Amino acid sequence: MRLTIRHETTYRYDTPVRYTIQQLRLTPAASEVQRIAHWRLSAPGKLTPARDAFGNDMHTLVLHQPHSEIRLMAEGEIDTTPLIDGRLGETAHAVPVLSFASPTPLTARSDAIDALAAVAGLGSPGDLLALAATICEHVDYASGITAVTSTAAQALALGRGVCQDHAHLMLAVCRARGVPARYVSGYLDPGDVPHAASHAWVDVWVDGEGWVSVDVTHACFASGNYCRLAVGRDYESAAPVRGMRSGGATEALHVSVKVDTVPRVQQQ
Length: 268
What we know:
It holds the Pfam family Bact_transglu_N. It comes from Pandoraea cepalis. This is Transglutaminase. The chain contains five helices and 15 strands. By secondary structure, it is of the alpha+beta class. It has two domains: 2-80 and 241-262, Immunoglobulin-like; 97-237, C8orf32 fold (Roll), CATH 3.10.620. The strands form three sheets. Strands 1, 2, 3, 4, 5, 14 and 15 form a seven-stranded antiparallel sheet that branches. The longest helix is centred in the middle third of the chain and has 14 residues, at 125-138. The two termini are 18 Å apart. The mean pLDDT is 93.
């Protein structure tokens, strides 16, 4: 499947910003499950490429001159491979698998999370879909309720959240049982379903299977219509854009993401 993706992020400020530094994880990595046909990342300054601690492609943007706007554009086409029951397999690891078994501040345990973990099945891909459905029953999709700093426990207590919260809650449940699980940021061809385009899901380590990729929000496997950007222990280590600035007063953020499937023409 070929996905065409266009992701535009614009920051505007009431007063000029004196200094900005941003880390951009906006470049999909080539792997066994996706191939980059072409990709372009543009920004109002030099982009310094690197690999982060989790093996993600990362670019650093530093702006020293006063500025009132930052416009980032990522766009291109990605060929993806359908997965059988979400199985990524035992792919190469930038860090040990067990490094994804420990909780983080965003995926810390609570009594309610431990209660979900006590009855969750985690031994097969089918078990993971059942857990995703349970999480969706406990946390309805609703935007504007939580923030990027909200924890899994807070989203569960509120009973509402977005894909990031669903992913964090599944990570928390898995890790409460000592099962490695990692956060995935990326894109989804929305088709006729909501809560899509720019998206977050999880990979869970299943003994004998390797990594199994699950879209918790839609309680399905993350397969051919998904483009992977970055993995991490939670949102903070896999966020598409993170940064700091000096000055600027109030910030206005606008994000536009469009993902479509491109028909593949077979050669005769």
